[in-house]
Specification:
Shape: globular
Largest sheet: 7 strands, parallel
Distance between the termini: 7 Å
CATH topology of the largest domain: Rossmann fold
Number of domains: 2
Order of helices and strands: EHEHEHEEHHEHEEHEEHEHEHH
Strand order of the largest sheet: 3-2-1-4-5-6-7
CATH architecture of the largest domain: 3-Layer(aba) Sandwich
Strand content: 15-25%
Length: 373
């Protein structure tokens, strides 16, 4: 049987996977290719790209193309972006030309603001991977005391974009339920779990008892500032900070964490720390930094929001706030029994969730194969 052909369109480079959305895109591609799907990648370079990124993407995907991003001006709606404000007007035609030349069985578009491209998919199955909810996202940010950033639109506009798809993918069940309320398209859950690295064997001795790895989005910045304020009063709890968040030159931290500014591979961070922290308050989507830490086998302490969409049970996976998280950091430092318990609970959660995601990936791959049969 001929391998099903899937075109993946993304405004985010798949390489390097140094932030959650890139990890999701790369991970889904790897999972589908391992299941016999031919995956080609069209990068709409919203954040630009470097020669090394383009080389990495060309070496990973079965085929790779890149188009420039849209030039964004003022929002098309009062106080919000229109659903197509960030989509290059020529993108549907570019996708249609690729479809005529290569005859894809399905087209998967990442993010609802590129959904107009699905109009060029011809008779291919039209899939939209949402990653997050963007209708009313500005109100969610303001409720957390944050200025909205990146893309946000109205719920009605988001629904218009969602309805361009035959199949909409939500990254966790609570968001899938909300997506079903916002559109008439079929909605399925497709989570994200990296390969379970801890199954490969023993880990090196960590250098730091606690650590945080994150990008510089507003939710991460707010969470780190709250954690820093609490840890400034707890000098007995040293921690390490890494990731794109260190590119923020206005980040002033009173707790004086050890910094890891040069991180070519996230594996270096997970090897350097014992317990990974995620003090996230609010936010939407699946917290990819949480599942990545679980996949590496680190014990994880986090808020309930940090574990949204995961079948978490341990108290360390559902802290009410940063104060409770810091209390459990103290418990982790003084109690070997607690450390063993948290590590075991984190690994059991990783195994359970990995099985759920693998079943979801199997279902999508089977559907794509049925198209090509």
């Amino acid at each position: 049987m001929t391998a099903p052909r899937l075109l993946i369109l993304s405004p985010i480079a798949s390489h390097p996977a140094d932030q959650g959305n890139a990890a999701r895109i790369q991970g889904l591609g790897a999972a589908l290719m391992a299941r016999g799907i031919r995956c080609e990648f069209l990068h709409c370079a919203t954040e630009g790209s470097t020669p090394s990124q383009r080389a990495a993407m060309a070496g990973f995907w079965h085929a790779f193309d890149e188009v420039p991003a849209a030039v964004t001006g003022e929002p098309g709606l009062p106080g919000a972006w229109g659903i197509d404000d960030w989509c290059p007007p020529e993108l549907p035609a570019r996708l249609a030309a690729l479809q005529r030349a290569r005859r894809y069985d399905a087209v998967l578009v990442n993010y609802v603001w590129l959904s107009a491209a699905l109009e060029g998919a011809g008779d291919a199955l039209r899939i939209l991977d949402t990653h997050d909810l963007f209708g009313g996202r500005d109100a969610v940010a303001r409720a957390q005391g944050l200025d909205p950033s990146w893309f946000f639109t109205t719920i009605a506009e988001e629904g218009r974009g969602l309805d361009r798809a035959d199949l909409v993918l939500g990254i966790q069940e609570a968001e899938a339920a909300e997506l079903r309320r916002r559109c008439g398209a079929e909605v399925a859950v497709l989570g994200h779990m990296p390969p379970l690295r801890f199954l490969a064997g023993a880990r090196p001795e960590p250098e730091a008892p606690f650590g945080y790895l994150g990008s510089a989005n507003p939710w991460n910045l707010a969470a780190i500032r709250a954690l820093d304020a609490a840890l400034a009063e707890a000098p007995e709890l040293p921690w390490l900070l890494a990731g794109r968040i260190l590119r923020r030159h206005d980040l002033r931290l009173a707790s004086r964490p050890r910094l890891m500014p040069n991180l070519p591979d996230t594996a270096g961070f997970y090897a350097a720390v014992d317990c990974v922290l995620n003090p996230m308050a609010g936010g939407t989507g699946l917290k990819v930094k949480t599942v990545e830490a679980l996949a590496f086998g680190n014990p994880v302490l986090g808020t309930a929001d940090a574990f949204a969409g995961l079948p978490a049970e341990h108290a360390g996976h559902r802290c009410a706030d940063v104060a409770e998280l810091v209390g459990l950091m103290r418990e982790h430092r003084r109690s070997e029994a607690f450390r063993r318990e948290l590590r075991l609970a984190s690994r059991r959660l990783a195994l359970r969730y990995a099985a759920e995601v693998a079943a979801q990936q199997d279902a999508l791959a089977a559907r794509l194969k049925a198209l090509a049969a």
